[in-house]
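debug: dumping io for the single-chain case to check the tokenizer round-trip. Nothing else runs in this session.
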Amino acid sequence: MNDISILEHINNINNNGFTIIRNGVEDEVVNKVIAEFDEWASNEENNFKKFNKNRVCNFHIYSENTMNLVTNKYVNQILKGLFDKEQVIYSSLFFREGTAQHFHRDTPHFYTNPIDMYYGVWYSLEDIDVNAGPLKYYIGSHKLEDPIGYQVFNEVYKDVENKDDINIGSDYTCIIEYNKYIEELSIKNNLICVDESNYINKINKGDIIIWHPKLLHGGSNIMNGKLTRYSMVTHNIPINTQVFNAKHFFTKEPTPDYLKNEFTFTYIKYNDINIVNHWCEPHVQTSYV
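debug: decoded output
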């Protein structure tokens, strides 16, 4: 792999909100992972439907090849530098096709104490065609100041008398409004949008993208619905860090469990990297925001 230095990747993330590792994974590893996913997806019991924007949670625990993929030693060095401590793999998503997912920040979904102790890592498993819905993002959007979660909650539900009855975990209105606000702010600040109409950072098989939790990103429009976009995302955190969610992000006062911040999982170790053990098999996820 002919790539820039660890420090340059860290500077890219701090300055732009992301970095691209070119040729970060060998073709042999990628090919084995795709073959195993296709075999898994072909099993009717797993309920995976092609070209239905399905994605698979925690496929990384399925086989040795996927473990080799996500325990990338170069990624590990970069994340250790960013966290200034050991990093671990929290969870993952596997994509066969593009998602056309709207712009969003990961902060409410991976809400840590202290905040933003998280990075996303995207592994490209094929040359990503511009018409297949490549990753989209606003360069530098991680630097935009965001509203306090409860300010968004109050605005969204200002006409609701008893706000205690609202289940933020199942009502995605707050998340949608929060992301809409960040997108409007990105446009107002004339940030460069990288998408299917401005595919300035073409991603090829074996490339890896690491992004900041506050980078506004999503899936570009799918111009050709017959194309695949094989890729895998891992969600990475510092060791012994508990991950909370939107329910905690949008509350008025920090909840007792957030303040206690007790890590409740165990680890599996592979290639000297710890992986959070969720005690579950890979499973299909069909709806998301």
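debug: round-trip ok. The first strand starts at residue 18 and ends at 21.
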